[in-house]
Amino acid sequence: MNNDLLFDFNVDKAAKTVFITREFNAGQSLVWDAFTKAELLDQWGAPAPMRAKTKYMNFEVGGRRFYAMISPDGQERWAVQEFTSITPKTNFKMYNAFADKDENRELPGSDWDYNFSEQNGVTKVDITIFNESFERMEKLLEGFKIGFTMTLKNLEELLSTLS
């Protein structure tokens, strides 16, 4: 087991872009599944004590995932993810926007670009998040790094049980 895995989180405010690189001690196919299958996403996709719940997911170009992060007191924060490009096992892109429970989007949103690669049993995921507005990025960054870091730790733990 490799305990020296890369985690890098950088913000380019001028470009309204967040760059995240994270390595996982698991094969690329399993990591890909964890990012693209609702039943796996719901197991790691929210920072504790919140939990993720996917209402539906159609992972294909033009398809959507509609899901919520649910707090312990039952408050739901919904989001819509629309898949804009998929190259199986190596890349997918999506447009992400917060929404209400009826799927009405709160604009502006952000474009997410995921790239997957594997070397010696370690899978690297590069994530680029471009925000449509500087204000949205500033709002996103409030707690985002902490929360996203927690969810990636959840994923690392899930992958260790699935490997």
Q: Can you characterise this structure?
A:
This is SRPBCC domain-containing protein. Pfam families: AHSA1. InterPro entries: ASHA1/2-like_C, START-like_dom_sf. Belongs to the AHA1 family. The chain is α+β, with helices and mostly antiparallel strands. It has a single domain, classed as START domain (Alpha-D-Glucose-1,6-Bisphosphate, Chain A, domain 4), CATH 3.30.530.20. The chain is built from three helices and eight strands. Helix 1 crosses helix 2.
Give a summary of the structure in a few sentences.
With 163 residues, the protein is α+β, with helices and mostly antiparallel strands. It is 28% helix and 45% strand.
Terminal-residue CA separation: 11 Å
Helix content: 25-40%
Please state the CA-atom Rg, rounded to the nearest Å. Answer: 15 Å
Q: Report strand order across the widest sheet.
A: 1-2-8-7-6-5-4-3
Task: Please identify which CATH superfamily we are dealing with.
Answer: START domain
Shape: globular
Number of structural domains: 1
Number of helical runs? 3
Number of extended strands: 8
Order of helices and strands: EEHHEEEEEEH
User: Which structural class should the secondary elements be placed in?
Assistant: alpha+beta
CATH class group: Alpha Beta
- The CATH topology comes to Alpha-D-Glucose-1,6-Bisphosphate, Chain A, domain 4
Strand content: over 45%
Largest sheet composition:
8 strands, antiparallel
Give the low-pLDDT segments. none
